[in-house]
């Protein structure tokens, strides 16, 4: 790996350091893969949680299309906000850690630690950008079951269409996650689809049991 001389300034103190350079195509691919993988996972969370919520409401109120859509939309908004806030806090914590490391490096005049910290800072995403990306990814996934259920009046047909749309989307997310993670596609798809179906089945079954008790 090639090194280049770089002048670093931390809290007014300047020193020379050798910072490893990375080819632009490799660096861009690494960053792009991380962001795409995070987006796929966020969209998958939005898909499964919103679809499970719709299935649960459908188990309690047969034919209640409006209740399903309202509950699903509320779950989508709440989940997107939760994802955004969680990502914002998480990335800001990382940012605080990096700043503290830079301050310690400046105090010791340690160029090696300083160059490592600066390298990490350059790769650290913006808290606001990470929050917005997480919210958007979750919303994209959650929109799939909402759109599938929004234009069908028949209860049985609506539930089947939601299940079919979610299954197709889960397959797509499984393939995308496998490609980005360089994992076996078949195993990834099975894991994602079975996990999504299990979440929907548990939610539907528990709510059906709740409705049958008359509580």
UniProtKB/TrEMBL annotation:
Cellular localisation: Vacuole membrane
Keyword Nucleotide-binding assigned: no
Molecular function terms from GO: iron ion sequestering activity; iron ion transmembrane transporter activity; manganese ion transmembrane transporter activity
Protein name: Vacuolar iron transporter
Role according to the record: Vacuolar Fe(2+) uptake transporter.
InterPro entries in UniProt: Ccc1_fam
GO BP annotations, alphabetical order: intracellular manganese ion homeostasis
């Amino acid at each position: 790996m090639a090194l280049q001389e770089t002048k670093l300034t931390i809290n007014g103190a300047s020193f020379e350091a050798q910072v490893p350079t990375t080819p632009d195509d490799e660096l861009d691919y690494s960053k792009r893969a991380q962001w795409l993988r995070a987006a796929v996972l966020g969209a998958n969370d939005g898909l499964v949680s919103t679809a499970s919520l719709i299935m649960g409401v459908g188990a309690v109120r047969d034919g209640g299309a409006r209740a399903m859509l309202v509950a699903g939309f509320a779950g989508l908004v709440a989940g997107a906000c939760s994802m955004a806030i969680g990502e914002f806090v998480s990335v800001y914590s990382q940012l605080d850690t990096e700043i503290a490391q830079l301050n310690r490096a400046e105090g010791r005049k340690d160029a090696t630690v300083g160059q490592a910290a600066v390298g990490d800072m350059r790769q650290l995403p913006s808290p606001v950008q990470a929050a917005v990306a997480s919210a958007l990814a979750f919303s994209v996934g959650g929109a799939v079951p909402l759109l599938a259920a929004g234009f069908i009046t028949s209860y049985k047909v609506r539930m089947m269409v939601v299940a079919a749309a979610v299954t197709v989307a889960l397959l797509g997310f499984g393939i995308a996650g496998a490609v980005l993670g360089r994992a076996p596609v078949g195993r990834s798809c099975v894991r994602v689809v079975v996990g999504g179906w299990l979440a929907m089945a548990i939610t539907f079954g528990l709510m059906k049991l709740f409705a049958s008790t008359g509580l």
